[in-house]
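Curious: why this fold?
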Amino acid sequence: MAGTGARTLQLMSLLQTSRHWAGQELADRLEVSLRTLRRDVDRLRELGYPVEARRGVAGGYQLRPGASLPPLVLDDDEAVALALGLQAAAQSGVEGMAESSVRALAKVVPVMPRRLRRRVEALTQATARAPWAGGGGPAVDPGVLTTLAQLCRDGERCALAYTTRDERTGQRRVEPHRLVPLGRRWYLVAYDLDRADWRTFRLDRVAAARPLGERFAPRRLPAEDVTEFVRAGTRALPTAGVVRALVQAPAADVRRRAGRWATVTALGPGTCRVEVPVDGPEWALLVLGLTGAEFTVESPGEVRDLLQEWGDRFARAAGRAASPVDGGPGR
């Protein structure tokens, strides 16, 4: 049985079909008792949904015909989470997910309160399309995220409370341009007024974003694509390591499968080198697995050991005995 919140949303969805629901039929659909159903209906009424009830043999529930639904009840963080989730789904590679997510956004955003609707619309408009690698990245303050989205949209300068890679904290006055989710992190591309140059800021290092009340004319980004601008900048940063491998597939195919969080260099018609900057080797193996091709790990050596361990474990999971490989796989 679904939790109360999820069940309430399901009940609201069923009632919005504008048909009359017999009480028992509705309870069966929700997999609850008639008593629980009555409590759920009362909860919707408290939220402002005009649910009519009829008693007797033909009794049941129906949303009042012609009634206008109240604004969707979400707090600020829930609205941001909803927008981010649908936006990530819209950019996923799952068949049919993009179209469904866009339709869901189109339905949900108009029934949000105006204040939240403006924040969600700003977040959608200010965020560049980029491959998102899923969870596990550093936490970002949703308030900072939506504030910067609105400043990007409105063309307003702001001051960032920012911590650099070497743990120095200070203020940065910037003209925010776009938000970019890349890999497992969020970035802000902005023109740094004090350094008179374009910069990329990791949002998990931004403690606060304070509007300065100064509008600015948009500047021309020194790159055709904002995501590539971020990718080029992060590629030059020191990381915990870079996993390198030779992949037996055309470079174009590998780029399409591995995404922009891997650097792919063509070595021949059917061979390329893949470099994945990582904090740990596990992520690199996932990227290499996504290529769907044979590959050989060049460096570092401990990745080959991890690959052997994973291979043995996957072989056991498939019901096959792991075969010892002289020198380990990838050699």
Q: What stands out?
A: Confidence is low (pLDDT under 50) at residues 325-331. The chain has three domains: 4-63, 127-235, 241-317. The radius of gyration is 26 Å. Residues 4-63 form a domain with the Arc Repressor Mutant, subunit A fold (CATH 1.10.10.10).
